[in-house]
Amino acid sequence: MEEKRLSDLFPSMVERRRHLHRHPELSFMEKETSAQIAGILRGLGIDTVANVGGFGLVAKIRGELPGKTIALRADMDALPIQDEKTCEYASLHPGVMHACGHDGHTATLLALAEYYSRTQAKLRGEIRLLFQPAEEVCPGGAKSMIEEGALDGVDVIYGVHLWTPIPVGIVASAPGPLMASTDEFFIDVQGRGGHGGMPHKTVDSVVAASALVLQLQSVVSRSVDPLDPAVVTIGSIQGGTAQNIIADRCRLSGTVRCFREETRELIRERIHVMAKNTAEAYGAEAQINYMMGYPSLVNDEGEYRRFMKVAPGVFGLRAELSPKIMPAEDFAYYLQQVPGCFMFVGAGNPDKGAIYPHHHPKFDIDEDAMLHAAGLLAAMAESYQDEHA
Length: 389
Prior knowledge:
Elements: H1 3-8, H2 10-22, H3 31-43, E1 47-52, E2 56-62, E3 65-75, H4 102-117, E4 124-132, H5 141-147, E5 156-167, E6 170-173, E7 176-179, E8 181-190, E9 194-195, H6 205-216, H7 218-223, E10 230-239, E11 245-246, E12 249-258, H8 261-281, E13 285-292, E14 297-299, H9 301-310, E15 318-321, H10 331-337, E16 340-348, H11 368-387
Parallel strand pairs: 3-4, 3-5, 5-16, 6-15
Antiparallel strand pairs: 1-2, 2-4, 6-16, 7-14, 8-12, 8-13, 9-11, 10-12
Helix pairs in contact: 2-4, 4-11, 6-8
């Protein structure tokens, strides 16, 4: 991995990232972003297939030396959040912003496209760049890209997330489970509405739903092994239209996060049973829509060891063991198909205003993290090719 050559590409990383930040597009709507990426790739003479799994792109850079096929992935969708930053590259699209760093991921991968397109004479095997749509919204873009052949012939895959909870200059990952699975559920409690002054003539859906909220708090505390991390969160409860009307319907929505498939199924079953029985206890009925989302992200242990070996040699980075975290990532689908490693690259820096958490209206990154991410991905790929030469 040639640090000087990558460093020379840093200004273009910043320029491209800031352009993307000004022009964000929501999940499954990344038409202009995709077109811009395709134009850059084709301008570099890279074999590129567009509209894979939606607006995804697959770019293939084939070296002149024999070797393995290594996939590198970047997501490119934004979030429905109003950008509250006052910088010159703030979002120009009301109610939409890159609040999770995907613009930086895309700019990083474009720099690697330029890097590898200039070094094909020394490149072993194939570098396959996956520009993925719709990471933020289930069912996500990874699954559809896989179904349309993005991983065909791939031997290993690597991905990064620019991560503001970690200071710039530090990178982190873990062997085995790293990020939780994520499921969503919606429960409609159906009662019988009526006058607020005559509750005995009604079945109060809000009271039944409120009881269910409290009951669901016991799913993790009393049904899941205390040593097995899991979360059940009720994010919203919506019912009623006025202070003197008893609502006939109340809706709950929530999320489930865990790491083991057995735990995932146990929680799903308990929510169904508890919703049905609690509603019946109040004379109501519960209709449950339970949506299975991304699986847990599980790193290959050998590729994690590679990360710990190569990261300290990249721009002086410090590599750390990451704790398991409850946010989810559809990179998990790729790791179900081929071995690989997902890595966090520190992007937090108070001196540059990169202090806000992901999905915050003032989210920003220390852009030096993009150079670190590019170097880390290149070093992982080079190490893998050297090992299998």
